[in-house]
Design brief:
Length: 316
Protein backbone atom coordinates (compact mmCIF):
# COMPACT_ATOMS: atom_id res chain seq x y z
CA UNK A 1 0.00 0.00 0.00
CA UNK A 2 1.21 3.49 -0.84
CA UNK A 3 0.85 6.66 1.19
CA UNK A 4 1.73 10.21 0.14
CA UNK A 5 3.18 12.10 3.10
CA UNK A 6 1.17 15.23 3.85
CA UNK A 7 2.74 18.45 5.22
CA UNK A 8 1.42 17.74 8.72
CA UNK A 9 3.81 14.75 8.95
CA UNK A 10 6.88 16.54 7.60
CA UNK A 11 9.87 16.05 9.90
CA UNK A 12 8.57 13.13 11.97
CA UNK A 13 10.24 9.74 12.15
CA UNK A 14 8.89 6.94 9.96
CA UNK A 15 8.51 4.66 12.99
CA UNK A 16 6.18 7.13 14.67
CA UNK A 17 4.09 7.46 11.50
CA UNK A 18 3.75 3.68 11.15
CA UNK A 19 2.75 3.08 14.77
CA UNK A 20 0.62 6.13 15.52
CA UNK A 21 -0.83 7.24 12.20
CA UNK A 22 -1.22 3.93 10.36
CA UNK A 23 -1.89 2.03 13.59
CA UNK A 24 0.47 -0.86 12.91
CA UNK A 25 1.50 -3.11 15.77
CA UNK A 26 5.10 -3.55 16.93
CA UNK A 27 5.00 -7.16 15.70
CA UNK A 28 3.97 -6.07 12.20
CA UNK A 29 6.66 -3.41 12.21
CA UNK A 30 9.28 -6.03 13.11
CA UNK A 31 8.13 -8.19 10.20
CA UNK A 32 8.27 -5.28 7.75
CA UNK A 33 11.83 -4.47 8.81
CA UNK A 34 12.89 -8.00 7.83
CA UNK A 35 11.62 -7.68 4.27
CA UNK A 36 13.82 -6.01 1.61
CA UNK A 37 10.69 -4.39 0.16
CA UNK A 38 8.90 -3.97 3.48
CA UNK A 39 9.41 -0.21 3.79
CA UNK A 40 10.23 1.91 0.76
CA UNK A 41 10.37 5.68 0.38
CA UNK A 42 10.17 6.85 -3.22
CA UNK A 43 11.11 3.33 -4.29
CA UNK A 44 14.21 3.07 -2.07
CA UNK A 45 14.61 0.90 1.04
CA UNK A 46 14.72 2.87 4.29
CA UNK A 47 14.92 2.13 7.99
CA UNK A 48 12.28 3.17 10.53
CA UNK A 49 14.61 6.01 11.58
CA UNK A 50 14.03 7.81 8.27
CA UNK A 51 12.68 11.37 8.68
CA UNK A 52 9.65 11.96 6.50
CA UNK A 53 9.39 14.83 4.04
CA UNK A 54 6.29 16.35 2.50
CA UNK A 55 5.46 14.58 -0.77
CA UNK A 56 7.37 11.37 0.03
CA UNK A 57 5.71 8.22 -1.28
CA UNK A 58 5.77 5.52 1.40
CA UNK A 59 5.26 1.92 0.24
CA UNK A 60 4.37 -0.68 2.86
CA UNK A 61 4.52 -4.31 1.72
CA UNK A 62 2.58 -6.43 4.19
CA UNK A 63 1.03 -8.94 1.79
CA UNK A 64 1.00 -12.60 2.77
CA UNK A 65 3.70 -14.67 1.08
CA UNK A 66 2.25 -18.09 1.92
CA UNK A 67 -1.30 -19.38 2.33
CA UNK A 68 -2.74 -21.04 5.44
CA UNK A 69 -1.41 -24.60 5.54
CA UNK A 70 -4.41 -26.39 7.05
CA UNK A 71 -7.27 -24.85 5.05
CA UNK A 72 -8.09 -26.88 1.94
CA UNK A 73 -9.36 -24.83 -1.03
CA UNK A 74 -12.85 -26.08 -1.91
CA UNK A 75 -15.22 -24.65 -4.51
CA UNK A 76 -18.28 -23.67 -2.48
CA UNK A 77 -20.93 -20.96 -2.90
CA UNK A 78 -19.49 -17.62 -1.82
CA UNK A 79 -21.51 -14.42 -1.49
CA UNK A 80 -19.17 -11.41 -1.43
CA UNK A 81 -20.78 -8.21 -0.17
CA UNK A 82 -17.70 -5.98 -0.11
CA UNK A 83 -13.98 -6.28 -0.88
CA UNK A 84 -10.96 -3.98 -0.91
CA UNK A 85 -7.26 -4.37 -0.26
CA UNK A 86 -7.74 -4.78 3.50
CA UNK A 87 -11.06 -6.56 4.05
CA UNK A 88 -13.50 -8.93 2.43
CA UNK A 89 -17.04 -9.05 3.83
CA UNK A 90 -19.32 -12.00 3.11
CA UNK A 91 -22.88 -13.15 3.65
CA UNK A 92 -22.45 -16.54 5.29
CA UNK A 93 -25.34 -18.90 4.59
CA UNK A 94 -26.92 -20.92 7.37
CA UNK A 95 -25.53 -24.41 8.08
CA UNK A 96 -21.99 -23.42 7.01
CA UNK A 97 -19.28 -23.24 9.72
CA UNK A 98 -17.04 -20.19 9.65
CA UNK A 99 -13.78 -22.12 10.00
CA UNK A 100 -12.63 -25.78 10.00
CA UNK A 101 -13.16 -27.83 13.14
CA UNK A 102 -13.75 -31.46 14.10
CA UNK A 103 -16.14 -32.94 11.55
CA UNK A 104 -15.96 -29.86 9.33
CA UNK A 105 -12.69 -30.03 7.42
CA UNK A 106 -13.74 -28.94 3.94
CA UNK A 107 -17.21 -27.37 4.11
CA UNK A 108 -16.54 -24.01 5.76
CA UNK A 109 -16.43 -20.36 4.79
CA UNK A 110 -12.63 -20.52 5.17
CA UNK A 111 -12.45 -23.33 2.58
CA UNK A 112 -14.54 -21.30 0.14
CA UNK A 113 -12.32 -18.25 0.62
CA UNK A 114 -9.16 -20.33 0.16
CA UNK A 115 -10.50 -21.49 -3.21
CA UNK A 116 -11.49 -17.95 -4.19
CA UNK A 117 -8.01 -16.57 -3.57
CA UNK A 118 -6.28 -19.61 -5.08
CA UNK A 119 -8.23 -18.99 -8.29
CA UNK A 120 -6.80 -15.44 -8.29
CA UNK A 121 -3.30 -16.84 -7.64
CA UNK A 122 -3.11 -14.95 -4.35
CA UNK A 123 -1.88 -16.44 -1.06
CA UNK A 124 -4.58 -16.37 1.61
CA UNK A 125 -4.35 -16.53 5.38
CA UNK A 126 -7.72 -16.84 7.12
CA UNK A 127 -8.07 -13.96 9.60
CA UNK A 128 -11.71 -13.84 10.58
CA UNK A 129 -12.57 -10.58 12.35
CA UNK A 130 -16.02 -11.88 13.26
CA UNK A 131 -17.36 -15.40 13.58
CA UNK A 132 -20.87 -16.74 13.44
CA UNK A 133 -22.19 -20.04 14.71
CA UNK A 134 -22.71 -22.70 12.04
CA UNK A 135 -26.48 -22.15 11.98
CA UNK A 136 -26.38 -18.34 12.27
CA UNK A 137 -26.36 -16.56 8.92
CA UNK A 138 -25.18 -13.15 7.83
CA UNK A 139 -22.25 -10.77 7.72
CA UNK A 140 -18.74 -12.06 8.39
CA UNK A 141 -15.70 -9.78 8.04
CA UNK A 142 -12.28 -11.23 7.16
CA UNK A 143 -9.03 -9.25 7.19
CA UNK A 144 -6.76 -9.76 4.18
CA UNK A 145 -3.52 -8.80 5.95
CA UNK A 146 -2.05 -8.60 9.44
CA UNK A 147 -2.28 -4.84 9.69
CA UNK A 148 -5.99 -4.84 8.84
CA UNK A 149 -6.63 -7.59 11.39
CA UNK A 150 -4.78 -5.64 14.07
CA UNK A 151 -6.70 -2.45 13.33
CA UNK A 152 -10.01 -4.30 13.48
CA UNK A 153 -9.05 -5.90 16.81
CA UNK A 154 -8.11 -2.52 18.27
CA UNK A 155 -11.41 -1.04 17.05
CA UNK A 156 -13.28 -3.92 18.66
CA UNK A 157 -11.57 -3.31 22.00
CA UNK A 158 -12.48 0.38 21.86
CA UNK A 159 -16.11 -0.26 20.91
CA UNK A 160 -15.71 0.89 17.33
CA UNK A 161 -17.34 -2.16 15.71
CA UNK A 162 -21.11 -2.13 15.29
CA UNK A 163 -23.20 -5.20 14.41
CA UNK A 164 -26.93 -5.57 14.01
CA UNK A 165 -28.81 -8.87 14.12
CA UNK A 166 -32.39 -9.80 13.30
CA UNK A 167 -34.02 -12.56 15.33
CA UNK A 168 -37.35 -14.23 15.96
CA UNK A 169 -38.11 -14.99 19.62
CA UNK A 170 -40.57 -17.26 21.37
CA UNK A 171 -43.15 -15.39 23.43
CA UNK A 172 -44.34 -11.80 23.57
CA UNK A 173 -41.41 -9.72 24.74
CA UNK A 174 -42.43 -6.22 25.91
CA UNK A 175 -41.16 -3.41 23.71
CA UNK A 176 -39.85 -1.80 26.89
CA UNK A 177 -37.12 -4.47 27.13
CA UNK A 178 -34.32 -2.66 25.27
CA UNK A 179 -31.23 -3.56 27.31
CA UNK A 180 -29.84 -6.90 28.49
CA UNK A 181 -26.97 -6.59 30.94
CA UNK A 182 -25.89 -10.00 32.23
CA UNK A 183 -22.39 -11.49 32.67
CA UNK A 184 -21.84 -14.70 30.69
CA UNK A 185 -19.65 -17.69 31.41
CA UNK A 186 -19.37 -21.31 30.30
CA UNK A 187 -21.63 -23.81 32.04
CA UNK A 188 -19.47 -26.01 34.26
CA UNK A 189 -20.65 -29.34 32.86
CA UNK A 190 -20.44 -28.27 29.21
CA UNK A 191 -17.77 -27.11 26.78
CA UNK A 192 -20.38 -25.53 24.52
CA UNK A 193 -23.25 -23.91 26.38
CA UNK A 194 -23.08 -20.63 28.29
CA UNK A 195 -25.14 -19.14 31.11
CA UNK A 196 -25.72 -15.78 32.73
CA UNK A 197 -23.86 -15.76 36.05
CA UNK A 198 -22.45 -13.14 38.40
CA UNK A 199 -18.91 -14.49 37.94
CA UNK A 200 -19.11 -14.34 34.15
CA UNK A 201 -17.58 -11.85 31.72
CA UNK A 202 -19.49 -8.57 31.25
CA UNK A 203 -22.02 -8.81 28.42
CA UNK A 204 -24.33 -6.08 27.14
CA UNK A 205 -26.99 -6.28 24.42
CA UNK A 206 -29.24 -3.53 23.09
CA UNK A 207 -32.54 -4.60 21.57
CA UNK A 208 -35.56 -3.17 19.72
CA UNK A 209 -38.91 -4.88 19.14
CA UNK A 210 -39.89 -4.73 15.46
CA UNK A 211 -43.24 -6.51 15.61
CA UNK A 212 -45.23 -9.49 16.83
CA UNK A 213 -46.63 -12.62 15.22
CA UNK A 214 -47.79 -16.18 15.87
CA UNK A 215 -46.80 -19.68 14.85
CA UNK A 216 -49.33 -21.78 12.89
CA UNK A 217 -50.20 -23.34 16.25
CA UNK A 218 -51.01 -19.93 17.70
CA UNK A 219 -47.90 -19.51 19.87
CA UNK A 220 -46.72 -15.88 20.15
CA UNK A 221 -43.53 -14.66 18.48
CA UNK A 222 -41.53 -11.43 18.77
CA UNK A 223 -39.41 -10.00 15.96
CA UNK A 224 -36.41 -8.00 17.13
CA UNK A 225 -33.22 -6.28 16.05
CA UNK A 226 -30.29 -6.59 18.45
CA UNK A 227 -26.91 -4.94 18.84
CA UNK A 228 -24.35 -6.86 20.93
CA UNK A 229 -22.21 -4.18 22.56
CA UNK A 230 -19.83 -6.91 23.74
CA UNK A 231 -19.00 -10.06 21.81
CA UNK A 232 -19.35 -13.06 24.10
CA UNK A 233 -19.87 -16.57 22.75
CA UNK A 234 -23.60 -17.19 22.12
CA UNK A 235 -24.34 -13.78 23.68
CA UNK A 236 -27.68 -13.08 21.99
CA UNK A 237 -28.86 -16.66 22.36
CA UNK A 238 -28.00 -16.67 26.06
CA UNK A 239 -29.43 -13.23 26.86
CA UNK A 240 -32.77 -13.83 25.14
CA UNK A 241 -33.15 -17.31 26.64
CA UNK A 242 -32.25 -16.06 30.13
CA UNK A 243 -34.94 -13.37 29.80
CA UNK A 244 -37.52 -16.03 28.96
CA UNK A 245 -37.70 -15.41 25.20
CA UNK A 246 -35.41 -17.95 23.50
CA UNK A 247 -34.65 -17.59 19.80
CA UNK A 248 -36.97 -19.63 17.61
CA UNK A 249 -35.40 -22.97 16.66
CA UNK A 250 -32.48 -22.69 19.09
CA UNK A 251 -31.89 -26.29 20.18
CA UNK A 252 -29.30 -25.29 22.80
CA UNK A 253 -31.17 -22.57 24.64
CA UNK A 254 -34.76 -23.16 23.58
CA UNK A 255 -36.31 -25.88 21.45
CA UNK A 256 -36.12 -27.07 17.86
CA UNK A 257 -38.89 -25.98 15.49
CA UNK A 258 -38.30 -28.04 12.32
CA UNK A 259 -41.72 -27.18 10.87
CA UNK A 260 -40.92 -23.44 11.05
CA UNK A 261 -37.15 -23.24 10.60
CA UNK A 262 -34.34 -25.78 10.72
CA UNK A 263 -31.99 -23.65 12.84
CA UNK A 264 -31.95 -20.73 15.28
CA UNK A 265 -33.69 -17.78 13.63
CA UNK A 266 -30.72 -15.43 13.92
CA UNK A 267 -29.10 -13.39 11.14
CA UNK A 268 -26.34 -10.77 11.26
CA UNK A 269 -27.88 -8.19 8.95
CA UNK A 270 -25.35 -5.36 9.16
CA UNK A 271 -21.85 -4.43 10.28
CA UNK A 272 -20.00 -1.13 10.43
CA UNK A 273 -16.30 -0.70 11.13
CA UNK A 274 -13.59 1.98 10.85
CA UNK A 275 -11.42 1.87 7.75
CA UNK A 276 -7.91 3.39 7.42
CA UNK A 277 -8.62 5.16 4.11
CA UNK A 278 -12.42 5.26 3.80
CA UNK A 279 -13.27 6.49 7.29
CA UNK A 280 -15.98 3.92 7.93
CA UNK A 281 -17.46 1.00 6.00
CA UNK A 282 -21.03 -0.24 6.48
CA UNK A 283 -22.20 -3.46 4.82
CA UNK A 284 -25.60 -5.16 4.92
CA UNK A 285 -26.72 -8.71 4.10
CA UNK A 286 -30.27 -9.56 3.01
CA UNK A 287 -32.20 -12.16 4.98
CA UNK A 288 -31.97 -15.75 3.74
CA UNK A 289 -35.19 -17.33 2.53
CA UNK A 290 -36.06 -19.19 5.73
CA UNK A 291 -35.99 -16.04 7.88
CA UNK A 292 -37.41 -13.77 5.19
CA UNK A 293 -40.47 -16.01 5.10
CA UNK A 294 -40.95 -15.71 8.86
CA UNK A 295 -40.62 -11.93 8.78
CA UNK A 296 -42.84 -11.41 5.74
CA UNK A 297 -45.64 -13.48 7.30
CA UNK A 298 -45.86 -11.23 10.36
CA UNK A 299 -43.98 -7.95 9.78
CA UNK A 300 -43.67 -5.14 7.28
CA UNK A 301 -40.48 -6.57 5.79
CA UNK A 302 -39.88 -3.62 3.47
CA UNK A 303 -39.80 -1.19 6.37
CA UNK A 304 -37.70 -3.44 8.62
CA UNK A 305 -35.08 -4.11 5.97
CA UNK A 306 -35.13 -0.72 4.26
CA UNK A 307 -31.64 0.10 5.55
CA UNK A 308 -30.42 -3.48 5.54
CA UNK A 309 -31.05 -4.77 2.04
CA UNK A 310 -28.16 -4.79 -0.39
CA UNK A 311 -27.85 -6.39 -3.78
CA UNK A 312 -25.67 -9.44 -3.29
CA UNK A 313 -23.06 -10.50 -5.78
CA UNK A 314 -21.64 -13.99 -5.67
CA UNK A 315 -18.53 -15.40 -7.26
CA UNK A 316 -16.91 -12.02 -7.93
Amino acid sequence: MEYRIEPIYDGIQLKSYLLRTLGLSSAILTELKKRPDGLLINGEHVTVRYILKTGDILSVSDEDREASEHIVPVKLPLCILYEDRDYIVLNKPPYMPTHPSHGHFDDTLANALAYYFESKNEPFVFRSCSRLDRDTSGVVTVAKNRAAAYRFHEAHLSGGIEKTYLAVLHGTMPDTMTLFDGPIRRREESVITRIVAEDGQPALTRCRVLGYGKTPAGEPLTFVSANPVTGRTHQLRVHFSHAGYPILGDFLYGKEEPELIGRQALHCVKTSFPHPSLGRVTVSAALPDDMARLFSDSCDTDQILLQSKRKEESGR
